[in-house]
Amino acid sequence: MFVPKIAIIGAGPAGLTLARLLEYNNMACTIFELDADRNNRDQGGTLDLHIKTGQLALREAGLIEEFNKLARPEGEGMKVVKFDGTVLYDDGHNTTNVLSEGPWERPEIDRVLLRNMLLDSVKPETISWNKKLFRIEPSSGDSKHRFDLHFADGTVEKEFDLVVGADGAWSKIRPLLTNEWPFYSGVTAVELWALDVQERHPWLSEYVGSGSCFMFDEGRALLCQRNGNNSIRAYAAVRQPESWSKDCGIDWSKPATARKALVDQYFADCGEDVKRVIQDANDDLKLRLAYMLPVGVEWQSRPGVTLIGDAAHLMTPFAGVGVNIAMADALDLAQHILSCRDGFNSKSDENLQDALAEAIKKFEASMFARAKPNALKSTNGLRGHFSAGGAEEFAERIHRLKNTTNSSK
Predict the structure, then answer these.
(1) Is the pLDDT of residue 10 over 60?
(2) Contact 391, 88 (CB under 8 A)
(3) Confidence class of residue 269 from pLDDT cuts 50, 70 and 90?
(4) H or E element in which residue 289 lies
(5) How far apart are CA 62 and CA 388, in angstroms?
């Protein structure tokens, strides 16, 4: 009986979703994750899972009921303002029309909750923690397209029939398939945290509302997200060169003066409310440079290795689809792998490895077709959000979508 030995590099949403789907269908795999444990680093803010991509993957993985317990449908609420503070759209303070039970189109969930749910859904022995991949090489003397994994701790895991790179932007697996490498998108965001907002930041809590609050303008944007742990993360983003954070003269090690300098130099002509958001979110500060892969990146399929999620098609966050497409990748790949299983008892190892290679080739074709329009959408969002009139265009698009939805009911 041929049982493929499968390695997944990275325990993010893509890698964990794939592992869960395989295990849920009685196929073993191993995840190698560089973090020491699940609490090793911050997992980011909140995200919305779409009903036809992220939620579908969870449904197929038997996790949709657990997700519905953790999801925040009120997080779909949205507020859009101009740079001068004029409110163009606001349904972020209206929760009366939110369904008490799913299915919801695109409810929010904190990234840490999603990851913990996925971690708890796989067997503890499936994940090998503190395993930083150093290099990947074809297995010695092997003509069957197997690979060995060499880790920074000196250990080697050998002869995997399939290695899936779910290891994000700076993937160690990608160079086996393509020479493409992430490039700077032109945008740097200053991430600002406000904790215990209802008690300590009541004005900000009320201003942002139940979901997201956006300001878009030429060369700059302000994006605010309410998180489920009574906190808000605000991202003051500017279109500047990659070296801007080092060359701009702002001392980021002093958050109070850094926020004031950011406002004075890049948001000085904005409305008082817009500037107050930056000043009021004063509990932490981090710099985030946005990188991306070329739109429509593809490669010639290679037996024994493939990519999913950001490793395959890194996008900027300005379409809000990254994690959803990554989880759709995981579902698609799992289904293609499982499609080979019926023949595992009846064919030779060599034929089944050929079948597995063909399944990967078919998966990649469908992934390329799925990724390209979403990457283009992200690129268009980047261009539109950081343009004059970006807020007006975004608000008008929301109005049109809402009117279309209401007229179809």
Answers:
(1) yes
(2) yes
(3) very high
(4) strand 284-292
(5) 45
Residue for token pair 């197997």: 146
CATH topology of domain 6-72+110-182+300-385: FAD/NAD(P)-binding domain (3.50.50)
Instruction: Report yes or no: 268 and 182 within 8 Å, Cβ to Cβ.
Output: no
Angle at 187 between CA 312 and CA 86, to 5 degrees: 120
Question: Mind listing the pLDDT tens digit for each residue in 64-91?
Answer: 999 999 999 999 999 999 999 999 999 8
Sign for the pseudo-dihedral over CA of 60, 310, 112, 189: negative
Q: Which amino acid is at 37?
A: D
pTM of the model: 0.94
Would you say 160 and 255 are in contact if contact means Cβ atoms under 8 Å apart? no
Which of helix, strand or coil describes residue 25?
coil
Are 334 and 21 in contact by the 8 Å Cβ rule? The answer is yes
For 281-306, how does the pLDDT look when each residue is reduced to its tens digit (9 = 90+)? 999 999 999 999 999 999 999 999 99
Residue entry with tokens 């980021």:
252
Each residue's pLDDT tens digit, 28-37? 999 999 999 9
What is the three-class DSSP state of 97? Answer: coil
The tens digit of pLDDT for each residue in 328-337 reads: 999 999 999 9
d(CA 273, CA 203): 10
Pair of tokens at residue 147: 């690979």
Q: DSSP per residue over 116-185, as a string?
A: HHHHHHS-GGGEE-S--EEEEEEPTT--S--EEEEETTS-EEEEESEEEE---TT-SSGGGT-----EEE
**Amino acid identity, position 93:** H
Give the residues across from 108 on adjacent strands: 48, 72
Q: Give whole-number Cα distances, 402 to 213, 320, 345, 392, 395, in Å.
A: 17, 18, 52, 15, 11
Q: At what angle do helices 13-24 and 322-338 cross, to 10 degrees?
A: 30
